[in-house]
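Two proteins follow. First one:
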Amino acid sequence: MHDEDEDWLFNRAYFLAHTRHDETTSAKVRAEYLAYAAAQIDYFSTLNKQVLGYEPPHIMLLHDNPLNADVIDELLAMFEKRGYRFVSLTQAETDPVYQSPETFITKFGPMWAYRWARERGVKIDGSLEPDPPKWIADYSKSAPLKPRRPRSQY
């Protein structure tokens, strides 16, 4: 599942809550992020099975940021709870689906499952993909962010 889980948006809200010393909101952002990540994992697992007939190795993009650092154990546990095991990127990319030529290329590059669906003529309803909670984006926009500080100062 080449999946990017909007972690940058959640991290922005998380950072802002930390700069405001708002532990209640920080905890809420962490919980919302984990719930959203779980929904994304489940969505793309189902979508890949629908499009390909099986579930290829998942490849998930996580940015190096304070939020992911603080919840990495929970994120990894989500995969383990669902029966996934961890392999190297090289191992994951040996799956035949990652060897197929890319014929659907766009400026922003939709997730792999959407590309594979289009290449195979499989109709899917992308509106079923979970979105981050609106309040996360609204909260992130509520104040300009200051330059990034070293993590130890949060």
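Second one, unrelated to the first:
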Amino acid sequence: MNCADYIENFLAAHADGELVGDELRAAQEHVAQCAKCRELLAQERALKTLVRTRVGVLRTPAELRATLRSALDSADGVQAGAGGGDFGSRSAGRLKLRSPGVWVPLAVAAAIALFMLVPRALYRQTETVISQATATPQAVPLTPGGVPEFDIAIATIEQFNRRFEPNVTSDSFGHISDAFMRAKMPGLVLNFMPAGFKLVGGRLDRLPDGRLVTRTYYRGELGVILCSRFLANGMQAPPNLDHEVQGYYYYRYRGYSICVSFDAAGKFACVLLSNLPLKTFVQDVLAPSGH
């Protein structure tokens, strides 16, 4: 299978989990050997996840509900006043208010208001999160001769295992991605649901040296996963790796399994960490997710 064949005939179905048998094996073998198609698969899955979360039903904000209720009550009052207090006139007024000529414009206005209010609320929340993330980071004990980025990730996941408090207050892939991008950080939020891991939530924090870091935390029956992304600042794959496949570097460090990768420009680093055995983490979790 070549790249053109995979992209044209298998990519979409692979991302949707629709391939089985020989087709699935062929697709998995190809992405395991092709960094380009592996990245396309990750992007396709992220896009499909984003679309699914955005198409869901949104609850109208309380502010908007109160405004619309007040507007409807006022409109009923105006209609009743115009009818001189006669019950028949008031009834006619309410019927007129609910006629298409009146409620269609109201519905359009409500839709426009919802479109404007929800993004503004999310933007205000993100601004607050970014502001909170500027607080002085806590110091993390480092392993002598170890890898600071790994020690920080381990301290973080152990803290999250005891108590996780997202500061991006949503478990929606789309909302978390938006918050990360507004902070001028990578917006890709990995989906490990096919491997049985649910996204618990996301955070924007600071590393001990002040760099902004995005964190997404996942839980499953087998264990936990933490994904951290931050400016690489010249970071390279640490030595003593277990193995490397197409730009993904795998480690066993202090009892944890770790995958390190970098974006195409080398600007951002990604550290994936789990308490699963390395073989299980790579074969059962990362490989189906395109890593």
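SUMMARY FIELD: Residues 100-133 form the longest helix (34 residues). The chain has ten helices and seven strands.
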